[in-house]
Write a sequence for this structure.
């Protein structure tokens, strides 16, 4: 993953001021480790590029998937003490992840239902074709054309 100057600067400003003395490679390793632990909370297309949003505790990462580049990171601050902010972030992240799991499960059920309906429609179409063929054969044997 590419970690440019901007995310490094934000990491030092917002997450770990002590990292200012680190060489870029060490800083990148620290940022990468946090990024890897972060939960994916959302993905979307932004200006034609796939973007992923991740959260770790009270750190919000914005990542360009196609470019494999960390765009920026933000500390999440609701204006409370650090402990309360962290609790809010963890609770809300758990809630988002739970909702994502629920959406995935419901989507799977819908997909299964659609597949079942498609199967039934194909069976009905085959039955209609068979009945049309039998009707055409019956009409031909009687010598009548409707």
């Amino acid at each position: 993953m590419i970690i440019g100057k901007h995310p490094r600067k934000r990491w030092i400003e917002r997450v770990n001021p002590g990292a200012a003395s680190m060489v870029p490679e060490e800083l990148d390793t620290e940022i990468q480790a946090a990024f890897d632990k972060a939960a994916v909370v959302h993905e979307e297309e932004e200006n034609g590029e796939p973007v992923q949003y991740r959260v770790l505790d009270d750190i919000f990462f914005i990542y360009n998937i196609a470019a494999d580049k960390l765009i920026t990171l933000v500390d999440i601050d609701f204006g409370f003490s650090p402990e309360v902010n962290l609790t809010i972030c963890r609770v809300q992240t758990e809630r988002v992840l739970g909702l994502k799991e629920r959406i995935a499960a419901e989507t799977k059920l819908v997909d299964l239902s659609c597949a079942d309906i498609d199967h039934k429609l194909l069976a009905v179409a085959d039955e209609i074709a068979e009945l049309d063929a039998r009707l055409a054969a019956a009409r031909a044997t009687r010598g009548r054309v409707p």
